[in-house]
Amino acid sequence: MIQITPHMRILVAVEPVDFRKGIDGLAALCRQALASDPFSGTLFVFCSRRRESIKCLTYDGHGRSR
Questions:
Q1: pLDDT, tens digit, for every residue of 22-65?
Q2: pLDDT at 33
C-alpha cells in the first residue's frame, strides 16, 4: 500500500505511457521526461493511452519500488 503524506511530492505525467514498460522503464522515464530522481520518494503517476488506467511509481526508501 502506498502511504501519501502531506509533504510528499506527486508528479503526474500529462503524456500517455506505454503500459508494457516495467519498473525500470518507468524509472528511466522519470529521469528523462520529468527530470526527476525516481528514488527521491516522489509519487509518479502515469496514464495509459486510452486514459482508462493509471500506474503509480514510488520508492519507499527500503529498496522496494512500488
A1: 889 999 999 988 889 998 889 999 999 998 999 999 887 776 55
A2: 85
Written as one letter, the residue type at 30 is C
C-alpha cell at 29: 522515464
* Residue-range definition of the domain harbouring residue 40: 10-57
In this prediction the pTM is 0.81
Residue 3 covered by a domain:
no
Q: Does residue 5 fall inside a structural domain?
A: no
Structural domains counted in the chain:
1
Q: Is residue 63 part of a domain?
A: no
